[in-house]
Predict the 3D structure of the following.
Amino acid sequence: MNLLLEATVVSSLFLVTQAEAESDWICIAPDFSSGPIPPVLPDSYHMVFEVNDLVGKKRHTDEVWYDWPNQRARIREVDDSGVAREIVSFYNSNTGFRYSEGGKQSVDGDVNRLNSCAVFKLSEHKNTPLFEKGGRPLNMVDVYQSLLFGGKYQFAFMDSVADATSRFIKSNRFTSCITDRVTGRRLNVTYHWTLDGKSPIRFEIDGGALDGDNNTEYRIRQVASVLRFDRDPEMDNDLFVVPRDLKCSDDPRIIPVDEFPQLSQDFAWREETLFSARDQDGRVLANETSIENRQIYSSRIFGLVRMDWIPTLRDGKMFQDYIGKPITVIADVFFKAIFIIEKNTGSCSVLPMAGEFALIKQTGTASFDIREPLDLLGMTTEHVEKGEYVERGSRVTVFSDIDEAPDGTIEVHEATFRYDEELSQLSNGAFIFVPTSQLNRKFFAAIDERTKAFESTEKTSYFDFRADYAHLDVFEAAMCVANRKRRFFRISFRTDFKEVIYGNGYEFLNRLRDMIARTGNLGTVMRVQKLKMLEDFEKNRIHVSMTLLEPFPELVNAIQTTVDSARDEIVRALNDRQLAVPIEWQGGTNTIVPEAGSFVELELSLKERTTPPKMLETSMYSAELTIPGKSFLAVSESIYWKSIMLEVNRGCREEHHASGACNLGSNDEKLVTG
């Protein structure tokens, strides 16, 4: 049977491919039968059979998935050359997909296959198997019509045989002369069934068909051997999906950009990309095969991105001096600066943002923005929602698109997303998908005899996706700020906010750092460093110390607010109660307001400590502050160890501040109060 090429209207699985003229063919339906009755057919079946067309002198192997309960079917025909033609039909929606598989393994063969898919309305196409026009509400023919056997057709038992006609399998043979109720054809049909009636073994069809163009009757003669027959099998949805890399013409499932799955603008993921290429004959080009790994963090809320990887020639001129070297790149779109750290040497370069790279796009002459996650996934134009497939052991939703350039170059893009129930719950349904993979294939046409066609493929897999902003420590560029001019400050909060602050330690420090940078007009959170928390039990205060960096001289176009100016702005905002830290906590937003006048500068020496400060003798600080994922011991060790910080000593009390400075037991450590 020819499923995809020219044929007469059909309702069963048996089609005319080529026939001979026949005007005197006659058969008579039986009116009596004795012996075994015809088997009862299942509601659904899966059948594989080999068809020998005696008139057309052709052979083909067919496979049919007939799913009556869900009103869908898939029919696959493989010819002698190995080319498979398929039709997937959804009768409730009156939609069919037809396409080709197999054929010559070459670039041209793949291009032909990509373009083989078409979508059509079942009711408007003359070559639609298992479709009954005017059969509403169900256009799918029933199982008896699909096999032209039993049910409304009267079959007579002939005999039981076990010879060459039944492949020497003991079988019951039934015959009838029927009129196809849809096409009106008169057909002589003979079936061999196993003795238990569970499976057909062989069937023969001999009859006539009417050519509507010239009103000529043609002969049909087909013999088929059934290789497999499954009754009421489980049919997964995967059986009825179109190959994910095809673009079907007139596909109704086109999704505009504004209806794509939404992803958080603050995210992190790890990606692995495989690059490969094939020549015109389908051979893999070894010198074009490579693998790249990248770790990406992106925080739109703070205007920061980070990427860790080893640059290649594909990364362009910006990173040509770092090819083959592991680096970390941190970009600040608000500050218009890029920090490049070589991991092997620890050296750092601070550069003005002058162009685009993987995570940053240029939006104007001197303006830049962070690429959105959908942009990184190539979802910038409308795509077709192909449906659900299985990838890496999970069900994913696939979106694809194919574009053809005037020069004959064809670009295939595909992105897959996995539903994440936990993410959906945490975001209250705002984000329900996480990215799984992205595929880019390019087919380059042969320009002349010397320039052959070839294909390039870029497949990226995504892992460890997080849909929230990272702690700002992720964007630290310690080696880039180690020798910068800096000043030391402290700000204080009442312990009334203790539960909220400790319950959101990372987020609290992130938000405070951002508010300090914004309020002081510092241009970037990179100029606010080393935030540490301590609790003063005696005064019921939580102190946060920090360092503020002076402007970066190499960034001439960046904001150049001095620390003095920043301090004045922060003090003014604090006194006017315009500085507050918003925190989401237990279903609501809490605003943490620092104490007025608590933003004070600390004057410290740059002498590095070699031993931790002896704080255990005091009663002022004796708590271990636990932040999710990290523990800070406030009484000794890590907070002050080898740090340039204030050692708060029991000899320092507020009543001693009247003189303007508090002696901390050392000539090189003072608290600047005015």
